[in-house]
Request: fold
Amino acid sequence: MKALAIDTSCDDSSVAIINFESKEILADIVFSHTRAMRPYGGVVPEIASREHLRSLPRAVESALEHARLKPKDLDWICATHRPGLIGALLVGVSYAKALAYGLGKPLSVINHIEGHLFSPFLDSNRKIPELPWIALVVSGGHTEMFRVGADYSIQELGATLDDAAGEAFDKIGKLLGLEYPAGAQIDRWVRQDASDPDRCRFPLRPAQTPDYSFSFSGLKTAVRTLMAAESFTESDKLALAASAQEAILQSLIVKIDRAKEGFPGHRVVITGGVACNSRLRRLLPDAYFPAPKHCTDNAAMIAMVAALQWHAGRLAIADWNVSAMSR
Ligand code: KG4
Ligand code: ZN
Reply:
């Protein structure tokens, strides 16, 4: 049983092919559109939709070529249907519907967050952490903490009250004059200067928020205010980037520590683009981080959720038919 999965939730056109029985990933293609977003300093939903329209057919072709398959070899089609940019999702789901209809194969729709949550199952050469988990999905669009039960059940514990952590990296990076997306650049920039004891000298602190919620929008304002001071110079920018990164990461760590206390015996799993951050990985040596290419958006994680649901006998077939009748 071979399934093709599509993810177009944000600005990456991703297609993967999985063997349901073995859970082996046969193709894992990501066409990134960040370059198209760079002049705007962030994702423009309308441009993302147009880029998906242009790239998705090529991404599907590449995936089939990579897996050495023809469309008729596919047994199942899957697509992310939520959450994400509505126009971008519509392109992926419409394409998947047409493909499934044309091939006469079933279509299933998958939740993008579940994709991130179960991405550790993609790391075939590493040991998948045993459930239950405390799982943090931390990306440009999401900062949400979950408990994942031994039966794969998902319970949301808390989420950001405003910006996502990756969004904070990107917006602070923009203020510092970096290109979009700035998270990886800040990570690399700060790492080069890791030996300077004075590097986190700006007084930026994690926001105090209740329970398992997060807040990052105040940091952006604090950075803007510090940069507006007359005494602020070009040479202070690196220290400010380091201080902001530390405040973002400490906000995450405070809540992870709280969850570890609240849920003893749970492994900690961190995924999403910000989980690529090298300092976060160093600060949390006991947490499980998927391989970086599976932390950022990809369709392999969507294919894996479909495979897990198929094994559990609960991969629902989407009904796309329209009808003039009331039942
Ligand atoms: O998961 P992802 O590819 O897309 C979303 O669903 O948003 O995550 C992209 C986000 C961006 O905000 C980017 O700046 C951030 O992840 N990011 C990082 C790093 N690599 C990517 N943030 C901090 N450190 C990194 N190394
Ligand atoms: Zn994502």
User: Anything to note?
Assistant: Strands lie at 2-7, 12-19, 24-32, 76-82, 107-111, 133-138, 143-148, 154-159, 267-271.
